[in-house]
Design brief:
Layout: E1 16-17, E2 25-26, E3 31-32, E4 38-39, E5 44-49, E6 52-57, E7 63-68, E8 75-80, E9 85-91, E10 99-101, E11 107-111, E12 125-131, E13 134-135, E14 141-143, E15 154-159, E16 165-170, E17 175-180, E18 185-191, E19 196-201, E20 207-212, E21 217-222, E22 227-233, E23 238-243, E24 248-253, E25 258-263, E26 268-274, E27 287-292, E28 298-303, E29 308-313, E30 321-327, E31 332-337, E32 343-348, H1 364-369, E33 380-387, H2 388-393, H3 395-405, E34 438-444, H4 449-453, H5 474-482, E35 484-486, E36 489-490, H6 496-505, H7 510-520, H8 539-546, E37 550-553, E38 557-559, E39 566-568, H9 591-607, E40 621-625, H10 641-660, E41 668-674, E42 691-694, E43 702-704, E44 708-709, H11 710-721, H12 728-732, H13 769-776
Parallel strand pairs: 1-43, 34-40, 34-41, 35-43, 36-44, 37-40
Antiparallel strand pairs: 2-3, 3-4, 5-33, 6-7, 7-8, 8-9, 10-11, 11-12, 12-13, 12-14, 15-16, 16-17, 17-18, 19-20, 20-21, 21-22, 23-24, 24-25, 25-26, 27-28, 28-29, 29-30, 31-32, 32-33, 38-39, 41-42
Amino acid sequence: MKKPQSVFLLLAFSWIAQAEGPFPGPTDEGYLLPNGWTLTPIGKQIQTEDQILNLVLSPDGKVAVALTCGFNPHGLVVIDTQTEEAIQRIPQKTAWFGMAWHPDGKRLYVSGGNTRKKDDPAAPVYVYGYAEGKLSETASTTLSVELPKEKVFWSGLVHHPSKPILYALNRMTNEVVLFDTDQGKVIGTWPTEQSPYDLVLSPDGEDLYVSNWGSDTVSHFKTAEGRLNSVMRVGDNPCDLVLTRNGRLFVCCSNENRVVIIDTRRGRPVETLITSLYERAPEGSTPNALALDPKEETLFIANADNNNIAVADVEETGEGTVLGFIPVGWYPSALAVSADGSKLFVGNSKGVASYSNVDGPHSPKARETGKTVTTKSGQKGAVSIIDASRCRQNMLELTRQVYKNCPYRDELLVLAPEVDEKTTIVPRRVGAGSPIKHVIYIIKENRTYDQVLGDLPQGKGDPELCLFGREITPNIHNLVETYVLFDNLYCDAEVSVDGHQWSNAAYATDYTEKNWPAEYGGWSDSPRSFAIYPSSGYLWDQCAHKGLTYRTYGEFAERQSEDGIMTPIHPSLGALHGHVAPHYLSWGARDTENAREFIREFDEYEKNYDSTDPGKRLPNFIVMALPEDHTHGTQPGAHTPRACVASNDYALGMIVERVSRSRYWPQTAIFVIQDDAQDGPDHIDARRTEGLVISPYSLQGIVDSTLYTTSSMLRTIELVLGLQPMSQFDAAANPMYKALGVNPNIKPYEVIPPKIDLNETNTKTAWGAEASMQMASVPMIAHPCSS
């Protein structure tokens, strides 16, 4: 047996601490988020549950109603527009986006979305009474269809101005459902295109327009004739709609940083508003909600991922201009303007701050209190109430603040942040490349920094929260002590569904962000859609554009049958066809088995080192799922959590050892990160995670406390391989300059054998066994576009 390297490297190294921070948290001006962007929301904040997808003003102007549709319990928050206080908080079983007033102003229709609860019937459209500035505390009645509950997912709603007809979108069947609101029954259906989101009526009720989230189109129906009149192609991921009295239709295209303006009289798009702060910015602003002032001269646009509201002058047709920006909370996704135009209401789906979670999953502190806070449950929303007139007066100052909050700028598409290039092989110039010709990018599952590395005294950890310390993860500990320890690294995502998007694209579309919370909360199941895919694609798409070779081991791949081979999870992932390791096992297998399959293929690459055929050599880019540290919880008969994490640790050590003993090693870098940090506690931030950069060029024995993110790791991979940034987030992220030096040390790594039994299994009496059995019945969502 090989002699393992010493695990007491503190004795061998004089630890070098790089400049600290900044760490996420309150600042003099606002709040520094774990992704490196800053929040400075103006106005009054009213806390709500997470995921505010809609805001509507009552016809009498007395109240604003916010609809929360996230991980936490769903419901309506009724806000008095004069006192600016929440006067009602009404729970609703399930909810999703749609709200519409009856023309008499006495009834509010609210979408029930979809329900996945075992004994619940299909979700309905709820109807609330309204009088004297308050809604009824419960729905007075409901509207429903005779379909299985898995075939019903209500979205946008609108009521005819003079007829008793409610038009309701069903995302599962891709159709408009017509309800007779006097009789309470269905009177017709009209087919839309994929994933209908919002709908609006012309003032006379003769024309109905529907945004098709997954088809990049807007459908136009003639209501009196009950027929589809036309389908207009707009931009990527059309969602929120606003229609003016003179027939201009504004369409948010959330995956393209723009609002498309349709002249409905001419039946085609005629104008585009760019909503990003910078003209050349790639995806990442995510315009996803609209509101017009009463005079229809000013359009407010919620840029969800830029945490601001773009303010546009749209008084003159064909001359729309963005005047400036308003800083708001985290992920604004709903807007409303008061009847007199004096107040702007903003629904911030992720609230106004991030948070730590010392009482996170599996924390001893959570067991003491009986309360567990995760990246999902800890997230709260907030409604901002803003003085619109003061915004107009202070637009220049507010706009300056928004630019200050944003780390992205167009120059970053050409040059990364300044660095002494004599100290690192990571180049500043985009596309230049580096001595690193092969990148192996390993994505693991769900762990926080404190949970794995909190026992290391040289890092900013909490040993009380360390569940998988040195005994269980000797290789991870040895590697971060040999190379670089990152104690200020954060996942851009909250869960696996958006985690695998962020980990491969440095972005998750609004479709992903608006659907996962209710799914993980157990409230609903959303349909799969092309709206999941980021417009700039994934890292392997960038490799294809560059002419680099690439291969996936389990990431965005699945086996169609138990004995079948791995293929891309969806036919639309064209760039992955022919680039999938067919016999890699990924989910459900031991990671040691996964490592052996990779090593088997790697041995063939080694044999073909001198080949002139690029297809036989080690690919320039490999992405690999190494997911066993997800664990099976304490499900009886399954491997224990610590055995799963130890297997994952040993597999990583096996891979590093084999690669470091090859001829490819001098030109290789291995990057390792968690897709999210949802299943553990952390005393700094719930999104803080464990990550590694392993290469002959890695600096030795340092603690790097630079604020890094998932996007930082992607940015570094892009720079060393000569790839373009995909979104505003990888372009703006701090490259890992301090982790990679200029003097290679090709000493190979020696894997440390497991220190615990990898075959240890859970007993029926294990703590949490009953909960794990319940979780075992919930399907694992590894990728959001899997079938």
